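hi!! sorry for the late reply, been swamped w classes. u asked for the two structures so here they r. pasted raw, havent cleaned anything up. first the sequence of the first protein and right below it the tokens
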Amino acid sequence: MAEVKPTSRLVSGQFINIQRLHVAKLLSDEAGGTASYDTPVDLGKVLRSIDIKPSNSSADLYADGQSIDTATNTASYELTFDTAALPLEYVAYLLGHKCENGVMVANKDDVAPYFAVMFQSDKRNGSRRYTKFFKVMFQEPSVKGSTKEANISYQTPTLTAKAIYRLSDGNSYTYADTESSGFEAETATNWYTSV
């Protein structure tokens, strides 16, 4: 695909909200093949904030006393989801544990599956940016609680995860923005229905 030079003086609305966290279990991802996913699951009104940190590395090549080239690489992305509350069934699903009759059991042989993760960021001007990570593995959350005091303090769980590149095509994530040139409404309509 040829590089397209953007026009000058583009503008973008300011982000004021994040919402609509969905996950879809990755069923297959083989090099040279096509990745396949289960039907997405809407986790409901749980997302309070998200932090996306790329794991970057860089190197400089020196010759004749100066840097003559530099290279950078992003190996993965560390994702942190601050949530309002997560039902036990979702915790078990994301971490590969068993949950039956309201009881979740974490076994030493449990393996956390990979998921696609989808959400949207809303802008003050009514526009939206959609985000989709293709291959994410969630990690066991740390749990912290405190006693009830005179002033109520909510105790909200935080989920951490790592996003890596798919074997099938090398992709890690995609963005779609309603303010971008050529954006089609169908993209927003279908964002959470499939990966």
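now the second protein. again sequence first, tokens right under
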Amino acid sequence: MKGQWLGPRKHRDLLLVFGGWALGAAAFAGMVGQTDVLLLDDYQDLTVDLPPLEGYAHIDLVAYSFGVAGAAHWLAGQKLVGRGLRLRRSVAIAGTLTPASVTSGIPPERVRATAEGLTATTFATFCRRAGLAGPAPQLDLEAARAELLAVMARGPAPAYAFDRIWIPRRDRIVPPQAQEYAWHSRAAAVRFVDAPHVPFRAGQDWQDWLQ
């Protein structure tokens, strides 16, 4: 994984954001809040050197799209090596623990077809379908293709009890019905939002998603 700070580091609280495939910081452009924000993405592998976190009063986690499974895999690995992370609150948005699944994610054949047919043009189409505001970000096609195949090969993530689960009703990337099925055992934690796959908007406070 790769880490990128979104904005200045000047707050007492930290938000760890596990991003989606290939969108990088563009998915969160214009988000605001009284927290430092560290974006983690690129799930070809799940190793990352985090900066020291001991100075933060609270740490929250937002996992978005493929970042939902990525976060669950990573958190399970942290526990296995004795580095459990104390989170105040964790949230899953527009994703599931089974990112490549006919019933509870994106059908595997669609993920594979996206990888095999990936070009700048098809990526721009993906960004439009996802509801990304603005132009498609710059993309390393080979790295993005390898990431999709790695996510498929890694398989389902271990169970993780996110405190809140958000499902965008107009999601054209991860079908809303698949998200509902994936989280049916956690129905009490689920909330719906009338938004596309990229549900974030400029000027929105991160705290809106942590409720």
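hope this helps!! also noticed smth abt the second:
Residues 52 and 138 are 30 Å apart (CA to CA).
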